[in-house]
Amino acid sequence: MRAMRKTTAVAASAAVLSLLLAGCGTGTAGGAEPSLRTHEKVAVYTWWAAGVEKRGLDKLVEVFQEQHPGIEFVNDGLMGGGGSSTSKEHLQSRLETQDPPDVFVAHAGAELQDYIKDKHIQDVSALYEEFGLTEAFPQDLIDRLSTEDGKIYSIPSNIHRANLLWVNPLVLEQNGIDPSGEYDGLDAFIADLEKLKNAGIDAPLSVGTTWPQVHLLETTLLADLGPEAYSGLWSGSTSWSDPRVTTALQHYEALMSYTNPDRDELEWDGASAMVIEGESAFNIMGDWALAAYDTEGKTYGEDYRVVPAPGTSGTFDFLADSFTMSTGILDEDSAKAWLQTVSSKKGQVEFNKIKGSIPARTDVDASQFTEYQKTAIASFGQDTIVSSVTHGAAVPIAQLDAITAAVTAFNSGATDVAAFQAALAASGG
């Protein structure tokens, strides 16, 4: 079963090239002509092409059609892009050739900086007042969405939590380990990984290819530095030469030694499957992984557990899928209508009930959501919030690219901890 989840570079490259060529022609992968920018249609670019993400988008479209029956939704995205650099590169090519979709999804936060600088997206601050979002969204979220001059360029459809440990309690019980999966810090966690390794479990901690490995680094830094110093790495108030960073990188090296050898060939959901199937005991991943467990019919709290990643209890590592409005569109009314649905109570409830994330709005009834989502809603309301690096909230794309290159070099054995630390220090320019 594991082999079916692996990808090959040749097949992936061919698929990407085919998609890009299709996207650069007269039509998009959604089957529609590009630039359908009229009041009767709204062209929306997402990377939600399959699985729970596509089902969530479909539900959001249903709500949109109820709320705005005179406007036709056009799926103007790159089907199969999966939120990867492929989707972003395809979108960037359209923006640069003045063929923007009316609205497009991006990760809220620093990822938007280049779009703002290049004037590809518009200030939507006025819509926050018009739609009542200054009251519906928590102030801390609004602060994170705002630029230094107080403008806001996107409206989030959801909130995801990144710092989660997914646990197979049966594997832990069989090996005499507390099945709760709760750890105050990384040393105790690593000690249990060693026990599992000695018991014959080759990869007690599963991980996927490049970005999941960056995700694991992010969570390790958060565990050892704490929320304030972790956030300081991205604002410049924490030095990369800080001894706590060195400790975190040493912990990261240890964690990687307990992961699966085929990690560079495995997508993130394949790493989740290793926990589901009992091949691994743990996986560190965001709450979008919930769909993998639900699809297999696993029961929350019994077949699997989800707890804050070791050393990060009391902190909510935040990211959000957020919709922007492009500049240069011929009629903004249809775009504003889509953004109204995205931000509406019904839109946020129906979308997030499927996607596994939680609404950005605080005025929703939490009882409608799953047990995990109830814990996430409570955590977002009371924990210290930090911004995810891997998922676009904390740093701009160029810095994330540099961090990713440093992680790739380190995990391939090309550098040691000291060189890794130096490369990360240089990532900010």
Q: Which strand order does the major sheet show?
A: 2-1-3-11-4
Number of helices: 19
The biggest beta sheet reads:
5 strands, mixed
Structural shape:
globular
SS-based structural class? alpha/beta
Mean pLDDT: 90
Rg computed from alpha carbons, rounded to a whole number of angstroms: 21 Å
User: What is the assigned CATH homologous superfamily of the largest domain?
Assistant: Periplasmic binding protein-like II
The low-pLDDT segments are 1-36
| End-to-end CA span | 43 Å
Helix content: 40-55%
What CATH calls the topology of the largest domain is D-Maltodextrin-Binding Protein, domain 2
Give a written overview of the molecule:
- The chain has 19 helices and twelve strands.
- The chain has 429 residues and is an alpha/beta fold.
- It is 47% helix and 10% strand.
- It folds into two domains: 17-160 and 320-381, Periplasmic binding protein-like II (D-Maltodextrin-Binding Protein, domain 2); 164-311 and 396-426, D-Maltodextrin-Binding Protein, domain 2 (3-Layer(aba) Sandwich), CATH 3.40.190.
